[in-house]
Design brief:
Elements lengths: L1 E5 L4 H12 L3 E6 L5 H6 L3 E4 L17 E4 L8 H8 L1 H9 L7 E5 L6 H18 L3 E4 L6 H16 L9
Parallel strand pairs: 1-2, 1-4, 2-3, 4-5, 5-6
Helix pairs in contact: 1-6, 3-4, 3-5, 4-5
């Protein structure tokens, strides 16, 4: 399986990517300015230069992707700059997944972003399912708790694939 992570260059995103890579999955992480390239490639993931602000920069990152993860629950910036990421930009990317290998979308539905924006993003993901039958799953875990967040993200990914994964002893 190949996972595309948009907003995955954070420490929790890298932890999620590491857990996937450890099981033999391929991970591609979009990096806006490349400052996280060393960390991304250091864990064995592919760094894709692009930004969700310009969907055209990530359109081809969807190639051979099984699961798309929209992990922007802790995005920072002015509200007018964040709104398109949970509205028009997300909708545009979801529309572009229709004729691809993407079998599901994981949406980070918790974080520091205004709840109204997260709700808007949830609406767009549901719309994509209703109109294009793109399955989805949510991550509702607190992004400040990396271990719990990674477990929730893995559960979301696995639920889309119908996979059963062994849980390590804690």
């Amino acid at each position: 399986m190949r996972v595309l992570m948009i907003g995955g260059g954070s420490e929790r995103g890298l932890a999620l990517a590491s857990s996937l890579i450890a099981e033999g999955h391929a991970v591609r992480i979009v990096s806006r300015d490349g400052h996280r390239r060393e960390a991304i490639e250091g864990i064995g993931a592919e760094c894709w230069p692009g930004t969700p602000d310009v969907v055209g920069t990530i359109r081809y990152a969807l190639e051979n992707v099984t699961v798309l993860c929209w992990l922007l629950g802790t995005a920072t910036g002015e509200p007018e700059d964040l709104e398109p990421l949970f509205g028009s930009r997300l909708k545009m990317l979801l529309e572009k997944t229709t004729d691809t290998t993407v079998r599901g979308v994981v949406f980070e539905a918790a974080g520091t972003v205004d709840q109204a924006l997260l709700a808007c993003g949830e609406h767009e993901v549901r719309w994509a399912f209703e109109h294009n039958e793109i399955p989805y799953a949510w991550i509702h875990a607190d992004p400040a708790d990396t271990q719990t967040w990674v477990a929730a993200a893995r559960d979301a990914i696995d639920s889309l694939l119908g996979a059963v994964r062994a849980t390590p002893e804690r």
